[in-house]
Queue: 4 jobs
Job 1
Amino acid sequence: MWIFSRYFIETFVFLNKHFLRNPCELIVLDNFITSGDKGELPETKNIAFVEHDIIKPFYPERPVDFILHAAGIASPFYYRKYPLETLAVATTGLQNALELAQKSPGSRLLFFSSSEIYGDPDSKYVPTQESYRGNVSCIGPRACYDSKTDILTENGWVPFSELSKGIRVATLNSVGKVEYYIPDEYINYEHNGDMIHFWSDRLDLNVTPDHNLYVKDKSNKFRFIKAGGIKYGKSWRVPSGVYFSGGKEIKWKKFDKNLSRLRSDLRKVNMDDWLEFLGYYISEGCVYIRKTKEKRDGTRFVRKNDNRPGLKEYNISRCYILISQVKPEGRKKIASCLNRININYMDSDHHQFRICSKFLVDLLSPLGKAKDKYIPREYMCLSLRQSKILFDALVLGDGTIKKGKNGRKGGNIIYYTKSKRLADDVQELALRVGYAACISKSTRGLYHVNIRKSGYTKLSNIQSGKYSGRVYCVNVKNHVICVRRNGKAVWCGNCYDESKRLGETLIDIFHQQYGVHATIVRPFNIYGPGMLKTDYRVLPNFGARIKEGKSLQIYGTGNQTRTFCYITDAIRGFLQVLVSGVPGEPYNIGNPSPEISMVDLAYEIGKILGKEVKFDIVEYPDSYPADEPNRRCPDITKAARQVGYEPSIPLQMGLKRFFDWVEEAYK
């Protein structure tokens, strides 16, 4: 974005010379990766030029007041030529800038994002507002997971290949809280190429090299980092357990009237007590129905050896709930729970509780036998406190608490079950109450849910290999999702692989967590004098070919539309957002009219130049990304209302200025 930088420099040179009593001092950083050389830079004592790559930290001699991060690569040709640099400058480079702002109290940072983050919006979202989440192409290389990866949803664990549209998925926001959102995009394509495999006893990820991992570095700061850029995995840790918040707190468990008529005193029970009972039953309980024949004298049952004439014999089904527990401490807890719910039981067997209740049998039978048991979804969205009640009761039944290093209890927990579905549910419940959890399977077919304290897992082992098959991901708000592979669950980045989108995520994190005053601008097709002949965007392309006497080349169909904003209008908008923008908010900066097709743009240029401009319709070159948007037009209502932005240079005037400059500058 050298055009922005040069115009900012010229703007402040002019302000220092003519208006400002106390001149602004500028430090300009650039590595000149796209311009090739420094060119002619204005000489002034108030501006220092430093050749520096901002993916490396920069330490000025004193705190700064304003930081403008305009170092992105905007030209499609160049961001395909320098893909890793494009990603790094808007992620690592931006994080360095945000950390500098954090160390400079009272400073403000402006991040130059892009209208590209909207992708190819549906016509009903054009002009496009900042609230639009985007419709990004999923064709071509994307950051994805392999086919063995599951994702955590509101319905539990689901293989990526079976994820249905409209289902909310678990995401981690910038302050470490779990939120559920419907994905904005579903990615599913055939991948034949490299994959990066990270694995340990607690971690298993197999992702494309450009996948964004959400990691904690040695300085305990979170950042996104590309899988293919990690060489020493032990330096990075991924979150493996966080606390879920915002669940429902329910006071009473109410039963269906058709069931509760069998026990009028159990039409509702305290939810805490019911959750505890349910945990005991799921872990150690079963339904037992004993079929027998019994004799009856009128309305009275009589003994089997009663052979009086006239007695009738009936087929009887005795319905029992059996809950096993041999540990005295556990038996006391179960008995106390049953007494609170007012459930009659027998415990004379010294190893189990026997409850004779058709009501409970009808209620609990749908939960299945040992190999089919599960936790109903209605109990997987409760508050942290109530989720912990259910979790503790499950562990008392089929869990083993290992001893810690000091020989006392408090170490890891292993939960055993024959049911794959229950293992999945227990793992999810463990995550919900703040633990980390992995699932393994023994040679005897028993599932082990290994539960440990929440924390972070090192990227211990790394291996690159070839892969041929489908890969999957989603594009969702917050951009961090909960995934697992081979039973090992962690929080990881989603398919939010455009560098500018990642940059906006960093802005949100630093604003929310550290109070950094940072705002975002999304420029829409800015143009003007200073654009390089080798920029390869439409107006420099047209200008270069006209200067050489060649026909214009219009890519695609020529019907795709854009709006164009002259550079001076854009600079004014950028400064208005820097000074008056709301921290953490994005602002569209562009000119909403006219929205013009590329064919009509060629005709308009011919009118301005006073001559016929010939053009050819050609295919997009390989240097362009797949599926360029059909329309791109900003809604600038927010910028106009909040910072007073209003462009003033009409397209005809701006094109006249640009092509007058091209005539002199393009040799």
Job 2
Amino acid sequence: MRNLGKRTIQIGIALGAIVGLVGCGQENSDVQAASHEDYGLSSINGLSSINGLSSINGLSSINGLSSINGLSSINGLSSINGLSSINGLMTTSAGRKTISYVVKCALAANDTLVKQDQNGTNYTFAGGIGLCPAWKNAGVHGDSNCEELVSACLMAHVNTAGVHVPLWLDANAPAIGWGIDSVNYPFQEGSFFGNIIETGNLSSLGHPTVNAPAAYYCDGAGFAAGNAGVVAGRLGASQMNSPYLNPFGNGVLCKNSPGVVDQYSKGVGGQTDPDGYKALNASATTWNNTITVWRNNNYSPIFDTSYQYALSSNATGGAMVLDAGSSPIQQWNASAGLVTSVFNMAPSGSNWTISPISAPTKCFDAGNGANGTAVALATCNGSAQQAWNITPDVATGNFFLKAGNTSRCMNVRNGGLNAGTAMEVDDCNTTSASMKFAIQATVYAGDQTGSTVNTTGGSSTTPCASYCATPTEMATQSDSITNISTNAVCYESTLPAKNFNCGNMSGRTFSVNGKAFDCGTSGGSKSLPATVNGGFCFQLSAGGTSSAYFGTW
């Protein structure tokens, strides 16, 4: 066992996540003294499957992080061919968040990577763990250790909630090491392994029975819910947009999987569960580069203000989501995809306010907080009744939302399962499914993450610079903006769209790059005008109804 002199390696992260896009240019790793003997790595997750490893931003069933996404293992990340500036991940805020995690996993804490986007804007991504430092300047195609370790690291930092959760990592890789912190991270959550960097058959990398991308996880023994195959509620079949597969099936823990090679730093009799696993077998092949995650049973979740969120009662299994289309707050069909069902989470001291993106000046309000009081939508005023204390139900991956003025829990009235059932506050019952809410990161009108570290070269002028001050960045080339509020709005895109449609805008003015279009009722396909500063600015004046829409492709 390596003797590191009793220390804990703590990754210092300004945004609370393993994110390299920071206003000060980069972040450093802090080595902090610890009173217990542990050699693993402390980290924090928070890369959501929507804004990071998703079918549109990197990981899918047919494309790895390379191919159409502008990332190649054949060349170094610093080269044009290794990480493209003009297409793929560097061209969207969501894609740049993925790159920040790639760099954080691959490069060491004292290193950074500077890359331009398609507009010539420079971004500085900070290293952190150092699992594959060679990738900065050289290709890693054919280097199974590098590719598998970065893959496992990325998978270990994803959760569908997009909530930043403290983690303890264990791996055979020297950059992480073995050891357990039974004081702060007593529960083994799960292990991650595979290769999401390459595509196609992996015969040349020693896995002839596997076609990449291959993303695997298995359940740790620390959580009872692990037997349900959900890795403590954060991944698995019951989660939406989960890009992973548990090859051993529900009810089979990592430590009980066939052919497992485990690591006990304190000896088999000195600890309940192994630190992690030197080898796991899946798809008729052995994976030697696994990363095991440990978690605390109690933590304060940190929501990312650059994400948007959907909330769903555990009782409905995700079929219903909270909706702010009327007051009081009610649940509605998730399949409706309403803009009023997407929320921003903003800090209020140690608590959080919840505001619909369609009405950002209004907040969830618990009123006087008495039992049975409906949760209303009211103008944000900074009061305790609008500040929600959100605590995790770690074993299920859900959360309790407690009103700041009375500490009573948000509840689906009478445990109802139907659309239109109102939310209320009641005395907390930690076993009640109607008081447990899944909180999941989502994108409705675009993720505006990816703050500029510095701007050098190229033009800093954006498509909307001459039209509006704070446009909302659109998420994808084929984007649909529906149920637009009656307020004046402005959207911006630098993605290569060619056409659009629009409708239900009677009494309002809709323009693209300053050119007005008739969208009074329903419109057919229209051609976009010439780009301005590399993209398009979509403006809609105030008025009309909240059923206005437009889409691009």
Job 3
Amino acid sequence: MEPYHDRIREAVVQALSPSSRKALHARILAVIGWAGRGTAEELVFHSLGAGRTDDAARHAQVAGAEALQVMAFAKAARFFEQALELGHWDAEPQRELQEDLARALGFAGRSRDAAARYLEAAEEAPADHRRRLRLCAAEQFLWGGYVDRAKEVLGEALREVGMRIPRTGLGAVARFLALRILLRFRGLGFTERAAEVLPPREIATVDVFLSAGTGIGMADPLVGSLFQVRALLGALRLGEPFRVARCLCVEATYRAAFGGTGYRRAEDLLARAGGIFERLNSDPGRVLHSLGTGMSMFQQGRWRECLDATTRGREIGISRCTGMTFELNTTEFFRCHAMAWLGRLAEARRGFDALVADARERGDRHTVAHIVGAAMIPPPLLDDDVERARADLEEARASLPRGERDLLAAYTFRGLAIASLYAGDVPRAARWSERLSALLRSPVVGGVKIIRIYAADIRAGVALLRASKDVHAVPGARRPVRREARYLRSFGLAWPDTIAAFLDAQLAALDGDPVASAEACRIAETRCEAIGMKIHALAARCCRLSLSAPQSDEVAAAYGALRACGVAAPQRLVAMLAPAIVTEPTP
């Protein structure tokens, strides 16, 4: 018999004495046991009600395992926690439960909690197993953005096998170059072997090197690439095809990040990896390949291809894969960034807001810092909210690893500089620009080409903003802006070339030649449209029309198009992008 309404059930239960409730739970347990029809979750509930905590712990363990199988990761974690709290376990079963809990927490995206549980499980584990659990903990700390803690735990585990993380940038560079030379001479060939015939310890080591290469690389690309090369060499030596292909995808993202001939090499590596994943008919592999493709395209400013790849990976991951929280969050991160560059600001904002809310709940500092700093424009500025943008960026800055010398710091300084340019605050913009440029002298950040492009754009923006506010600064602005325009063109990529064309337009405006400036704006607009940079294309159109037909209805229509994209104060945004042309923002 089932009560019609919960309040009826609650009233009946409340009327029972504690001893009666306990007896009824015991009778229900007996009936369920006799019929063999109760679920593990029901057995937990009634065992607790009957005061049989040891039985409840055993059933909670089973319920957790069942929840894990059906991808109910948060539910599985709750049951495993309950089993640990209620039961009186021997050392080995307790450690296994802690590992199950850590695994469920990791799948649920609670990286920091998962890492803590792995470390608890490692305390009483045998030496080899303890090292593996520490490596798992380091992996989870990395995925949550706790880079300093991850390096500490990873260093402890590596020291046990005679390895260490380089302490200096020069040491990392030397080791990185040595491994690169080894990889070049060795080549990418391998003898295929099944994972089942390979030593589990060696597989685990490759997996952790790869996780370190991915996780550390989000903050320290130099050390991250060092671990990535180790992972790739190890995977090729073992010959397990899925791991080889996965390492090739990550290697491609590093090659694209470091630029130059790396762009072409990245495409070759991704083609190899994609072929292996298709031969294996692996949906997780397709997600990894789509993510690697999206990240490589993003580094080159190929926004449309980035969006296509990440959308494809997201759809496959959500519908067909489990246990890929980090990969899917990273895929969504790049998908939203691509949408922003393509002018789909409303969709990008919804995605960013969801990612930030989820990341804050899980304690994932990587995602928060990257979104607020690496976005094309810090999201609150689209609402014309400078103070909120600065508050978000300062929050991200407070979570940076010690020393503020890594990639997360570079993105955060970039965001703070953009917020200052938007506010028209020359001293602040100059200060953050200088801090960003100083990071480029570090081997940790200096090799990442997209950061160099961002820094050049901001340096030019500071010079132009200063000239727009002080006529005496105009002569001194021309040389640095011309230098940055030449530098942007040296990358051989379409998107910095369009930024350089925008700088040409502003140089002409500084020279007092509105006709040449309008023509340069037209060129910038055409180039932006060709690669899908809609916001920049509309900004260039606003500038062109402001110079050539300032009283026409087309000017208002151009600003209206920006407003329709989700920009609350379009003239203020254009004034940030082109301060030498548009200097009087409206509310």
Job 4
Amino acid sequence: MTHPFRLPPASRPERRAAITSSHHVIAARIVPFALSCLALASTGGVGHAQVLTGQGPHTFTLDTFVSNVPTIGGAITGVGPIGVAFRTDGKVLVTDAAGDILFYPNHSNGQTAPCTCGLPTVPNRGTSNAVCLAMIQQGTDWKYYLTEDVAGRIEEIDEDGQDVRLIVNLPGALCLIPYPPAVVNAHHGHLFATAEGTSDIFEIDPSATPTISTLMTVGAGPDGIAFSEDGSILYAACTSEFVVKGYDVSTGALVWTSPMVNSPPTRPDGIAIGLGSLSGYLYANYNNDNSGQMHGTVWEFGLPGPHLGDNHVIVDSGSRGDFIAVDPNVWSGGAFPSLLFTQSDRIMRLDPPGGGWVGPPTQSTEGVLCTTCFARYCEPGIGGMQGCPCSNPAVGPGRGCNNFGALTGGAALDGSGTPSLNSDHVSLSVRDENASALTVFWTGTGLVAPPGFALAAGVRCVSGIHRLYTGSASGGAITRPGPGDPSVSARSAAVGVPISPGQTRYYFTVYRDPQASIPCGNPTSTANVSNAVGVMWTP
């Protein structure tokens, strides 16, 4: 990721002269929980339309995710969205050029305005030069972090937007990313940043007394940075060399260099590592050439391994390219991540085959990732689970196998509420079943190791099961507990599986799918199964 207003280095000597090597750290207390991957890309002027090239191994679709982002009040008139970040509850946050933090629902295309989403818009916190946005989760609360290029600092902002605190001075601060939260080592919980006028990568330790140090020195003009999934390789867009480079985190050794692309060669800006179905690839958004001409292309590079050298331009005809990012829900099991990148007044979305996904984690053993969500399990064909038994695959993650009555793409079960034995507000909701299907909600005490096993037209992976609730769907949806029903914890005790603090319980539904018997080749196969969800209960 990088500053979206970046011009050719030779055109801004006045900016570089203002950059110093001072990195004074202001003491502040930060609890270093896992950060959501920050996101973004920027391309061109209002009305600009990029096009898919159709090249490469992935058949992407291109849609407008968010439009009508304000383009006034910032450092450069006509440029609106800058930073984008994904919360682990699926909401998308956007900083605009005026320094506001805007909230959008999690995965619907065609949004035209920010929503409250139960959260306030945080106004004018970037002092008109907000660049990157990152987050730290504290229980169910959040801290937001902004890099400010012109002001040369990184600030912490409470979720309500009322408490703004300077964390560290970093002149020319550009990109800010977390170390992969599922990887636990000496870098766990730290932030990493680039800055103008230096080839250093900075590591920020957000402890009670924050510190900043140099992780390594990379190629000339680093801007966008990204880590491999296991945190062992750091990739940097070396804008002054027109390439992306990969470095071993432990030794600093150069391990990979992308080719120069476009004619004349243009500068890589924002970069993102492919995850899930995009694993093994790096995505780079390209900006200007030496003359200052903007190109706005997106490239897909095969990294060392089976895809090495499989390089393609996947989006063309843009007028400017800055940030790009992959939805990090795949850190916790999702398989079809979306890429988001921004134009002057909008955010565009690239979806890979499988439908794309912007949303909560789908399957996580990393507790921090799922503090505010119910982890999803038993997704057919994902994470080692077997495919659907009757040639009826789900249309995407977070679902069971497709049904034969409504052909909805598969029943999707979600959990919400507080899993507290003293204050149980847990609700289980399933959608996209057959319209009025008889439905049974089940609870279980464990998981069957992948690949799970077939159950009628679906796949099951939960063991130690007991029936919780029964009812009929309306419009393919049903929620339990309903009016007059005992709570989930009370009902669990009533059916003989009381819950103790610290225990994880799993939930799924089985519903009628009578038309499945013929394609399944079994007259008794008249049911289907949702995905499963799980949550750890507290006192």
